[in-house]
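Note to self: keep these together.
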Amino acid sequence: MRECFRKINRTYLDGAVYFVTTVTDKRKPYFSSKTLRNLLIKIIEVNAATTKFILLAYAILPDQMHVLLKVDSNKNISEIMRSIKTNFSREANRVIGNKIDPIDEVSRPRLYVVNAKHLRKEYSKEKKKLSRFRWQKSFQDRVIVSEKDLSNCLEYIRFNHLKYGLSKKDVSIYVNINAINNSL
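Structure:
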């Protein structure tokens, strides 16, 4: 049986600020693993440097991530998210101990940002057994059109962790809104 995917009409604007949400497959809490959470943050930061977008803020929750970013004129939000999701999936599956599809190795450029052996060792200490990592298909995005809209998104990023019962101590691990002050 073929899955039906609706075509998503995205708005691509040079220099736009986007609020993006993407979720793990079946909402599995992969990011409750400190190792995988830190890997995702590293992948996002490296992608920001290599694909020329400005990371303004992010929140990493157990089963999803929210990012606020400003797109450079030569990239679009779909390319950026494809790069983040593809690179994270590949590296996360290396850390978890899953085999990587050889076609994936050849067809998509890899960001060499991690020492997989070191991260596998870290991950094994957590005593978490997770199945193959996958993202849900696609992602949700919206263009920020006003200061009020930006403020609302920042508040959402700042306080969404409370729905997950994460403590104030955990917030510094999951949420970063410091970049916004230096980038707008």
